[in-house]
Design goal:
The chain contains ten helices and ten strands. The protein is α+β, with helices and mostly antiparallel strands. The strands form two sheets. Strands 1, 2, 3, 4, 5 and 10 form a six-stranded antiparallel beta sheet that branches. Helix 1 crosses helix 3, helix 2 crosses helix 4 and helix 3 runs antiparallel to helix 4. The radius of gyration is 19 Å and the shape is globular. It binds (R)-mevalonate (MEV).
């Protein structure tokens, strides 16, 4: 029996979400929440996952093949769905990679990333490509989409210093009512109606994301807190953080920390995962508990897609 197992990490935007859709840089980290896909030859009938209806046509088109031999597909995941941690990119990337190996197509991360981006377009309409690139290549990724066919995907040659890395906490505010696609469209509409607001957001977010790169490399804690606070304020200016979540973030700020939405956010209530930072991470855990929210610590900058 042929059996291929591929795993993918989650991702978290340290900064740059939404701005990255408009060609600004984003700094994104692969996170150690694992999604696993198993493709095996003991499938007697075509599998029932709806996802196959998206992934198989992408592979057939790329390799100009009409049929794919029957296979069994199994998916298991630790990544919360629709919470800004790249669950759609992770499942697409791992599935594409496993199916390509099943078809005896050699492992090629650039190709897998390109095909995963095609799947992301089906899910999200106009994705930047930052989520899939981080999940596929892993580590800390500096991402910038210059043109549809020209993307800078730079894997950084340093990791987040321990002193900083140990103080990040993820706080789960729950799955937003709005999808990533809807939030990206919402920002697009705001850009049409009030271009000055979005232009200001884009310029400031680019500046902050560049500063963040330096601050992380140099392990500057006070500056890091300041950047996350400013970045969040900026995200709030384009309406991607609900008032419910903004007030929780204000509580964390009052305690001396910082927090931001991650990914597309949400405007009604829940916004998915928050990336929070405090010199004493227990303070964030207390704030999360007070608000009945779960929270946990993760490793940032882990390995990307791999065969298990
Ligand atoms: C979604 O995880 C991040 C957004 O910037 C959309 C994208 O980059 O495609 C909101």
């Amino acid at each position: 029996m042929k059996k291929i197992t591929v795993s993918a990490p989650a991702k978290i935007h340290l900064l740059g979400e939404h701005a990255v859709v408009y060609g600004k840089p984003a700094l994104v980290a692969a996170v150690n929440l694992k999604l696993t896909v198993v493709v095996s030859s003991n499938g007697s009938k075509n599998n029932s996952y709806d996802l196959s209806k998206i992934i198989e046509p992408i592979i057939k088109k790329e390799f100009k093949i009409k049929t794919i031999p029957k296979y069994k597909l199994e998916i298991s995941s630790e990544i919360p769905v629709g919470c800004g941690m790249g669950s759609s990119a992770a499942v697409s990337a791992a599935y594409i990679a496993a199916l390509l190996l099943f078809l005896n197509i050699p492992w090629d991360l650039d190709l897998i990333n390109k095909l995963t981006y095609e799947a992301e377009k089906v899910f999200h309409g106009n994705p930047s490509g930052a989520d899939n690139s981080t999940i596929v290549f892993g580590g800390l990724i500096w991402y910038r989409k210059e043109m549809p066919d020209l993307k800078i995907i730079q894997k950084l040659n340093f990791s987040i210093p321990k002193k900083l890395a140990n103080n990040f906490v993820l706080v789960n505010t729950g799955q937003p009512k709005e999808s990533t696609k809807e939030m990206v469209i919402k920002v697009g509409n705001l850009y049409k109606e009030k271009p000055q607001i979005v232009e200001k957001f884009l310029l400031e977010q680019e500046k902050l994301t560049r500063e963040l790169l330096f601050v992380i490399k140099e392990s500057k804690e006070d500056e890091l807190i300041w950047i996350i606070r400013q970045g969040e304020k900026n995200l709030e200016s384009i309406g991607v953080a609900s008032s419910y979540v903004s007030s929780i973030i204000r509580e964390i700020e009052k305690l001396g920390g910082a927090a931001k939405i991650c990914g597309a956010g949400g405007s009604t209530k829940s916004t998915g995962m928050l990336l929070a930072y405090h010199k004493d991470p227990d303070k964030i855990k207390e704030a999360a508990k007070k608000n009945n929210l779960s929270c946990f610590q993760v490793d940032l900058g882990v390995k990307g897609l791999r065969v298990e």
